Amino acid sequence: MTITIREALQLPDMVHTRLIAGAGGLDNPIRWVTIVEVLEDTSRLQEGEFLITTGFGLAEHTEKLASFIPSLAKQRLSGVAIHTGFYLREIPETFLTLADHYQLPLIEIPTEINFSTITKAILQPIMNRQFETLAYSSAIHNRMIDAALSKGGLPAIAGELAALTGGVVSLVDALGFEVTQHGSSEALPLDQSQEIAHRVPIRANREHFGTLTLTKPEHAWKELDDVALQHASTLCALEYVKERAVAATEWRLKGDFVEELLNGQQMTHTELESRCRMLGYPLTGHHLCVAVRVEVADQTMLGDLHQSVITLMRRLSDRHQRSYLLRERPHCLLFILQDDQTSLRLLEQLTSRWRGLHPELALQIALSNPCEQLPNVVSASEEAMFALQAYPLLAQSPQILRYRDMQGYQFLFPYHREKESLLRLWNPLLEPLIRYDTKYNQQLLETLEVYLAQNGNGLQTSQALYIHRHTLKYRLTQIEEKTGYRLEDAHQRWQLQLALMARRLQQQLYPTNR
């Protein structure tokens, strides 16, 4: 720790010195005392040093005389003391003007005072404060370690910091969640300009975990508070590393369990109950399978993005006191949640928070139908995955697509696994239209799509296509002739609609095929 120029001038051995200029810098901290008689190179001086000199050689060199004060101010010295009576009989007037301009305290030391007296007078309190800091630092370290080992985690560390400093401590993680806050805000001044907030990043292995902030009234702030803040941030980083290791183990155990369920491994009710209890997931009630995908062009980023989604999901589920199971797949994440309103709110918050954190990366979420028994998540996972594959056809981020709301595409569920199955659904009906369009440069297929989308309303269809009603009538007649289906028949219209959907789905799932 240091003392200021103001404090140094009040020391008993400094009473005969005199501040003659630069009063604006009286609160500059003195970090060390340097005695230089022949000052050849000011660039070697360090920020915060207090320079004592006789001014040897300055009087004979006009250039050195003019640059003396500016060069010291450039090095951000705390102050300068000139021992008059040896080489400078009196301090030049230009020194006074420049010292005031740069707010660099300029002190005159009379001839009768020795260098050693001044040096000892200033260094002794600095050294005493350094020892005080070391002792305080050690005490802080011990108290913080005790807090960290109390199994109280991040709240315990933040609480101990608040108790030690008497300030308000808040911890915000890298995702913007306020993890904890301690200390009474009543102690802070009503005028926010009178308080100081120091923020320290929480980092480990170049990874940013969050920010620790200590806020106190300006008049009550102590340099030792920064020591406590640094200790606390280090322990918070260690706590986050520990949390990451625990989460990785939990993630692996949950993933293994889900994989066994998806592979159809037979388990007794007792075994299921035991595994669920160990992982903190309720076996009772209905369950949802949730497929989550980050839409990103660079697939090498998926690993980090999946980790971000998992971390965000963990933070949100902690707030809702909601447990879940998780399995990572190459291109998506599979979550298993209880089927209730809390889970739906959690997923809505997941999309909202993700959009705030990564507006350029769309998050797609698809839900299965509820399943009554946990082993039934095999079929539920297939529903969620199918809905996720069809997501671009039916929804836009941040919408959540449910299997039951797939606008009829769920009826194609058994056929999506093979492109040939989809092809057999639509090709017999639509191939004649495609072939005709290609040969005669017509738009029969597009006309059919718009006509069905407009619920068979001819006026709206012709307006949407920007064609005359007679042209529309001719095209509809051609469609009926080529497909052999009557558009007035509801059942046959539905088959044509299903064929169009099958074709769109094939184009989505197998983009190399038409």
From TrEMBL:
Ranges of residues in domain PucR C-terminal helix-turn-helix: 444-502
Residues in the signal sequence: none
Domain Purine catabolism PurC-like: 7-126
InterPro entries: CdaR-like_regulators (IPR051448), CdaR_GGDEF (IPR041522), GAF-like_dom_sf (IPR029016), PucR_C-HTH_dom (IPR025736), PucR_C-HTH_sf (IPR042070), PucR_dom (IPR012914)
Domain of life: Bacteria
Chain ranges of the CdaR GGDEF-like domain: 269-390
Family membership noted in the UniProt record: Belongs to the CdaR family.
Name of the featured protein: PucR family transcriptional regulator
Native species: Brevibacillus antibioticus
